[in-house]
Amino acid sequence: MSADVKESLFRRIEERRDELVALTRDLIRIPTVNPPGDVYTDCAEFIGRRLAARGFQLEYVRAEGAPGDSDRYPRTNVIARIEGRRPGACVHFNGHIDVVPAGRGWTVDPFEGVVKDGRVYGRGACDMKGGIAASIIAVEAILEEGIPFAGALEISGTVDEESGGYGGVGHLARLGYFSRPRVDHVIIPEPLNVDRVCIGHRGVWWAEIETKGRVAHGSMPFLGNCAVRHMGAVLHRIETELIPRLASKRTAMPVVPEGARQSTLNVNAIHGGQPEDREGLPSPVVPDSCRMVIDRRYLIEEDPEAVKAEIVGILDDLRRERPGFDYELREVLAFLPTMTDADAPVVRAVEAAIQTVLGRPAVQVVSPGTYDQKHIVRVGHLKDCIAYGPGILDLAHQPDEYVGIDDMVHSAQVMALATLELLGAR
């Protein structure tokens, strides 16, 4: 591709800076909060209307029966496709439209899309509505430049990535939307920083542990069997034995940040005794159940069965050693670690585009947490998939989340140039 064509493409994207900001703000103002899955259809249709006006063919796919799907909160996905001048490969940009709840601590309205100091603030600005906007502007710029290409371009807005992706990319992958011959290369605009190519993620195993007990009067706890105390014993063993072992496990995966290059375990939630939503004073009762959800992130060098066995071993030891101890263990979700080949076509194309646009080499990284690549690889069997987009990973899910405007412009230029390379445009 000639230098003149590249320069014209980059200039067109730069000239659409204000439009890129406006599109990001419009997306932020659609509060697609998950849970429960608010206004997914509104956001999908907003994206669909814009792309249909540019000549894309649309499909809306509801993931009926997926977790959380209902007539009140339908899991609505949009897929837009436009064909090139002759047959060829397909480049697909996939962005999740759902965002986590705003939470506390904001100094700006989280759903206003406030612009200040060269940034757009709002829930989802970084993760990942700024990335969705950048991918749309990138593809529109290619079409407006009239650069001939073979194959096809696709953009999808999908749901529920923040809660596992089963109603979004997971559902579409089962239907063949992320498999060859329909799609060849996938770029997910997650916020991994504008000069990074994310080639995969660590593994994840979520499980719910329930310790069992027996109800008794709180003034005579010796007549009961306290499930909360049993869970305390589980926590003690995890804290004193398992977590130190995990800290010693290191990976060759280029995981960022540095602290995630080891195995980790987080306690997501713990509930025991009487419900917290009661009114008035509690009654004096020994709790007969306590539940804890754990989030175990593991490395590509680890055996998934060994990861589970670490927890089962602690629980079985306590069952033998602790009078009255009993438990149930339920798997919530599990995804294997994944890494795209470092020299895969989509990796090479995006790295070369980063060098051209930013004037510095790209950095290959692996995400500490999973994202929708897991479904594309596992269900769609499509390995030429990466995450690349604007935004700082550490800002995701934080109060006063933002995305830099310069980063969005640069990432759109990278996306456009990489797309043309993958489609063989000349």
Structural write-up:
With 426 residues, the chain is of the alpha/beta class. It folds into two domains: 3-201 and 338-422, Zn peptidases (Aminopeptidase), CATH 3.40.630.10; 203-335, Alpha-Beta Plaits (2-Layer Sandwich), CATH 3.30.70.360. It is 33% helix and 22% strand. It has ten helices and 16 strands. The chain has helices at 3-15, 17-28, 40-52, 125-145, 169-174, 227-247, 304-321, 345-358, 373-378, 405-422; strands at residues 57-62, 76-83, 90-96, 115-116, 119-121, 152-158, 185-188, 196-201, 203-212, 264-272, 289-298, 327-335, 338-339, 363-367, 385-387, 402-404. Strands 1-2-6-3-7-15 form a six-stranded mixed beta sheet. Strands 10-11-9-12 form a four-stranded antiparallel beta sheet, with helices on one face. Helix 1 (3-15) runs antiparallel to helix 10 (405-422), helix 2 packs across helix 4 (125-145) and helix 8 (345-358) packs across helix 10. The chain is elongated, with a radius of gyration of 24 Å. The protein starts with a helix and ends with a helix.
What is shown here, in short?
InterPro entries: ArgE/DapE, Bact_exopeptidase_dim_dom, Peptidase_M20, Peptidase_M20_dimer, Peptidase_M20A. This protein is an alpha/beta fold and 426 residues long.
